[in-house]
Amino acid sequence: MEDLSFDLAVQTVRALNQFLHGPADTLAGRHVRVSNPDGAHNIAVGINAPVKVTIEGHAGYYAAGMNKFAEVVIEGSASTGVAENMMSGKVHVKGFASNSAGASAHGGLLVIDGDAGLRCGISLKGGDIVVGGSVGSFSGFMAQAGRMLVCGDAGDALGDSLYEAVIYVRGTIKSLGADAQIEPLTEADIASIAELLAAGGLQHEPASFRRVASARTLYHWNADADQEY
Amino acid sequence: MSHTEQPVHVTRRLQKEESASYDRSTLDYIHRASATGLYEIRGLGAKRKLPHFDDLVFLTASLSRYPLEGYREKCSTRTVLGTRFAKKPIVLDTPITIAGMSFGALSANVKEALGKAATAMGTTTTTGDGGMTPEERMSSKTLVYQCLPSRYGFDPDDVRRADAIEVVLGQGAKPGGGGMLLGQKVNPRVAKMRTLPEGVDQRSASRHPDWTGPDDLAIKIQELREITDWEKPVYVKVGATRVFNDVKLAVHSGADVVVVDGMQGGTAATQTCFIEHAGIPTLAAVRQAVAALEDLDMKGTVQLIVSGGIRTGADVAKALALGADAVAIGQGVLMALGCNRDTYQQDGQIHSAEAGYAALGTAPGYCHHCHTGKCPVGVTTQDAVLEQRLEPEWGARHVRNYLKTLTMELTTLARACGKQDVHHLEPEDMVALTVEAAAMARVPLAGTNWIPGQN
User: From the list B37, B156, B211, which residue is nearest A66 (CB)?
Assistant: First the structure.
């Protein structure tokens, strides 16, 4: 099917999103190119169809937010909350991503070629995040499920109050958050890392990553609380 | 006996003089704290006495005003929410809505009962933390879907299925604090919906993961509007603290409806220090919220829902008279379902719940043990046996009756004030019984023209 173009210099984000919310069977397999995004907010949010969208420049807040099934490529950088609450599909940021990239995503794959800002993967509930560069402080905060792979460094308080999500980091970790701990890599981890590297089109030695997961000491309140008094 | 000696009964009383600062309840608090090393967690709302709607009375009609006939003349309760931006505003038959309470805190049976009652009464239910259950969506004709800091089970399909979206910043029982669900209530279904390990003591986040501050919130609301193609109203809910500023910022952020939850609002579980010591009373919150809307010339454009300790039709009437467009009720509705009742009905039989209360170390009338998940009347539980004690049909009937009673009381008071529409009630229809209530509600102290702080 032929490509379809939206020029945000003359058309509105509203018109683009309305089109992208059309019937899934008419959108399936189509490729929508979005030119002159110029950092507009809420581009391609709430898609519910296997459509491909290419944003030819920088995107503002919540690009591809709550995505289902679609493949969204951002050729520039993305602002806060890219692919937030994604359910499935793939979002690829070729530049950098700002804060809260992939926040509370339940599924799908988010690939960021450059660095990501603060709170990358905060509240993650499934799905995978692959970062070619480094991530800022409080990344993986309260992440519940899913995987994060960071090829560069991590800032302060990585994985604070983690539940069952797992974070792999290749570079330095400035500090771990409460209840996060470094654990030895297992065979399954090596396979996971190789899989995530392949998904992100990256080439590193899987064994050069470290695994960060929850020590699970915050799962229950003070055990003394049940004592008689 | 020499004249310097005290009579023996005075000596006895002095030996047992109670301290105001260190009374029994403070001593119990310190003894408990020193034994456990952990703050107390409980359910429901503030237990201490606070300035409240009881401190206001209506100046119903007499010679200077003309009443409507109590049973015959028309008195509209129709309420429309979300007229600012949404293509499909919410139209209610009564201004009394059911507050957001989660599946997890409540059983699936309870959620179903609430949906049925709300549908019968032409009002809304609200999902709460932890996602939308099919039971609730099917039973509730008009359903408000909450977007909370935790984003547990948050799903764009449910956003599309909802009739309105409520972005929750805080709750009156614990403004500034995240939710809690203790492990006993995190059963396999709840755990799966929230993507949590079974049985963990779940601590919800207190901040949203993807926005900070009102300018971000404006973009977040726009995202929700874009996803729903600008059809559904977006509510913003705040716990009552700096209400005047928070309501203004919520309006600035693009809310269609602002929900203000006062400190008497309930919770399924939080620290007692939050419940009793954070936030302001609902009475004070209403007037500040209305003042903010008036200051922005947004009264009537952005609707105000007030919650937190609304129990009776009189409370509803007073909240509306102070300027609320609607109210939301949580605890009152749970009590209609049997919370703190000494019996429950199952399979057509009435059973005593006393043993269940006793097992929790409490008694009907005093129970606040929602956090334990061992609700003796099957309301705030995920236990497979206990949850059967609340049958959806029985529950729906009681909640419907409760809301019906409140709506009748509301229109009775409105008619007596000479109003054909409950939304025509105004502050001038009321006076206050205490100086505190007069200052908070900005109505005169009864028998005077004095509004403290105003004149």
Answer: B156
